[in-house]
Design a protein that fits this description.
The complex is a heterodimer of chains A (320) and B (378). Chain A has 320 residues and is an alpha/beta fold. Chain A is built from 10 helices and 15 strands. The longest helix of chain A has 39 residues. Chain A is globular, with a radius of gyration of 20 Å. In chain B, 29% of the residues lie in helices and 28% in strands.
């Protein structure tokens, strides 16, 4: 059996590379493709456009629909999820207060650092380390809450979930690749977790785009440098599935990130190190071969690696 | 460096060829830092600038260059200013307001079009131009029976791209909706901001009145039409969430008065308001000095200021600093805040016009119905 392969893509509009990517990964396999579109929520089954892009049979795992069936049968399970969400929202509110202070310090230090780098750079490094610690502690607290919830709910003993998992397992085993579409990243992640999809992905190539790419990584990071309202503070939101290791994907970076700002780019790269921050725009692709990340394409068609020096450089070939 | 018009005058070559060269070499009005030079070339006895900037004399005379047919006027405007104007050309005892022949930039409104001048720092927002990546929503024309007015009213309904009958949507009611679409690119703005996830996908009802100066002037019949005719009709025929927090009113000028007064007359019906350049005239003592059309407005605003109640909880207020209503709008904001409204207030260097209101839409709509841009990555 070939080693598992993970491919992360940017948005598939206005330029889709799904067809060529799937052809690369699955070769001449006649097996269908399994797809997860739970991030589209109520529109989960609107797959006509996706099917047309792929031009081959697909089987939708219908995680959103399956979760609705589970919720209907076990309302207490749904109530528990809402309760956990309320708790996580409160924790996130506290985290955002911490973030605001930490990021203010960093921005101020970035503004004055060039006045005397030898003296001020260590202070900036300390401030970034503080921010990393805030991220880490929040991440661990969220993971603890999630683990306790999973343990309390006893997914493995829930016959409805077990039945769906078995159906999903069979579909995945009969597929040549699993495709994870974008959409609402937290809803997607929630459904992936309910049905323990990560445990089923050891033998199959996985292709995720936009929110799908984010959900496959180890840490889901929410970002937007130009929101019309509120702060623009990038925030760690949840643990991802984790099969795309050592990387923080930033889909649609062209519209969402201020890539012309060396300070902002450098901060992302330094904050999430040693993970690599990768800007993934439409048509761009990065592959995990089990050992390393590799960018596809050259120049404008290649994904961009955000560097601690503040550059967004095309990732052509292996990730350094 | 001296201004371009000064350099031209100092050169003292006022031949027709030299004037041709000056006109060909410049873009008009000539914006040099904060100095704006308006230029007119043609036969005239007297030329004036007719602008709509409150605080400056409405009509300002141009100066003639020597005995030529070249006229100019230099005024000072701060950065990020946008103004609309016409040129009044008087000849043989007759005056005519015309658009600036040397300036192609126009802003249209129900009365025609004005020439437009902007200073450094102002940019037309990119989200007001059609975006080929943004899929368009659709428009439906409907007739709404109105008990309040005793006849049916035409309403244009906007449905967002990917409209699904099984979803539930917030409702935005727009006063002067057809004019907002024609003069403020409203549909394009909705398409773009929904595509960018900056505003929630929403259903928008564009209303129109043939008697807006009366019906929008805090007229209870209009409020009744919105609350008891239009909303029930829409909630019966469209998949609307149907809660106060998902109902918003938007209006400009008298339309803003209609929005605020309707929410005030029907508390807990409309929880979100967008008030643009509202005609919120009021008096602290004595009589107001505006036209008689403002009589009921002043009565309402005075009563509202006395007792704002809980008309809405989230309000966007926007006004141009070059319009006469800036005082009234600035005065409204603390009243709203003290009454516990969550207010976002925006002032910009612009006048009482449609493109000013267009430029505020991103801030305003994302304030009342924010989109899912932090959690959705398509």
């Amino acid at each position: 059996m070939a080693p598992p392969t993970v491919v992360l893509l940017g948005p598939q509009k206005p330029k889709s590379v799904l067809h060529s990517t799937v052809a690369d990964i699955t070769g001449s396999s006649a097996q269908p493709l399994a797809v997860i579109t739970a991030g589209w929520q109520e529109d989960e089954n609107d797959v006509a456009e996706l099917d047309a892009q792929l031009g081959r049979p697909t089987r939708n795992l219908a995680l959103y629909q399956r979760s609705d069936l589970v919720f209907a049968k076990y309302p207490q399970f749904r109530a528990g999820l809402w309760e956990r969400k309320a708790l996580l929202d409160q924790m996130h509110a506290g985290y955002k207060v911490q973030l605001a202070g930490a990021l203010d310090s960093i921005r101020t230090l970035q503004e004055v650092e060039s006045d005397n780098p030898a003296v001020l750079s260590p202070y900036l490094a300390d401030a970034i380390a503080t921010l990393q610690e805030i991220d880490r502690r929040h991440f661990e607290r969220m993971a603890q809450v999630t683990a306790e919830f999973d343990s309390d709910q006893g997914y493995g003993a829930n016959s409805e979930i077990v039945r769906h998992r078995e159906e999903i397992r069979q579909i995945i085993e009969g597929s040549s690749a699993l495709l994870v579409a974008g959409g609402h990243v937290l809803v997607l992640l929630n459904r992936l977790r309910i049905f323990a999809i990560a445990e089923l992905l050891t033998q199959i190539p996985v292709i995720g785009w936009s929110a799908g790419a984010m959900a496959l990584s180890e840490r889901v990071v929410l970002f937007h440098h130009f929101p019309a309202q509120g702060s623009n503070n990038t925030a760690v939101a949840a643990a991802g599935v984790g099969i795309a290791p050592g990387i923080v994907p930033f889909p649609n970076a062209r519209h969402r990130l201020d890539l012309d700002s060396p300070g902002r780019v450098a901060l992302l790269a330094r904050r999430f190190a040693p993970a690599r921050c990768i800007a993934l725009d439409a048509g761009q692709r990065v592959d995990w071969d089990g050992q390393q990340w590799h960018g596809h394409g050259t120049s404008d068609s290649a994904p961009r690696l955000l560097t601690p020096a503040g550059d967004a450089v095309p990732l052509e070939g292996s990730c350094p | 460096m001296p201004l371009a018009i000064r350099r031209f005058e100092r050169a003292a070559d006022f031949s027709s060829a030299a004037i041709d060269g000056f006109v060909d070499a410049n873009t008009f009005p000539i914006v040099e830092g904060t100095s704006v030079t308006f230029v007119f070339r043609g036969g005239a006895d007297h030329v004036t600038l007719q602008h709509f900037v409150y605080g400056l004399p409405t009509s300002q005379p141009f100066h003639r260059v020597a005995d030529t047919d070249l006229w100019y006027l230099t005024l000072e405007f701060p950065r990020e200013s946008r103004l609309e104007y016409k040129i009044n050309v008087e000849q043989g005892g007759h005056g005519q307001w015309i658009r600036d022949p040397l300036n192609d930039r126009l802003a249209r409104d129900p009365f025609g079009a004005n020439s437009v001048c902007t200073t450094d720092g102002y940019e037309v927002p990119d989200w007001v131009e059609p975006d080929p990546e943004a899929s368009p929503g659709t428009l439906q024309e409907i007739q709404v029976p109105s008990a309040a007015f005793g006849h049916t009213r035409p309403v244009t309904v906007y449905l967002p791209h990917r409209f699904r009958s099984w979803r539930r949507y917030p409702l935005l009611i727009v006063h002067d909706g057809p004019d907002f679409m024609r003069f403020a690119a409203f549909k394009t703005v909705l398409d773009n901001l929904i595509h960018r996830l900056e505003i929630a996908p929403m259903i928008v009802a564009m209303t129109h009145s043939n008697d807006r100066l009366n019906e929008y002037a805090a007229d209870r019949r209009h409020a009744q039409f919105l609350a008891q005719d239009l909303v029930p009709h829409l909630e019966k025929h469209y998949p609307l969430t149907g809660t106060p927090a998902t109902r918003a009113l938007l209006g400009a000028s008298f339309g803003a008065v209609a929005s605020l007064s309707s929410a005030w007359y029907y508390p807990e019906m409309f929880d979100r308001l967008v008030l643009l350049s509202g005609s919120f005239a009021f008096t602290d003592i004595g009589e107001h000095t505006r036209s008689p059309a403002f009589d009921p407005v002043v009565d309402f605003v005075n009563a509202f200021r006395e007792e704002p109640g809980a008309a809405a909880s989230k309000v966007f207020v926007g006004c141009g600093v070059y319009e006469s209503l800036i005082y009234e709008n600035r005065s409204l904001v603390p009243i709203l805040q003290q009454a516990g409204f969550d207010v976002k207030y925006s002032e910009d260097r612009d006048g009482h016009n449609w493109e000013n209101w267009r430029d505020r839409l991103r801030d305003a709509l994302s304030w009342v119905f924010p989109g899912p841009l932090w959690v959705v990555y398509e």
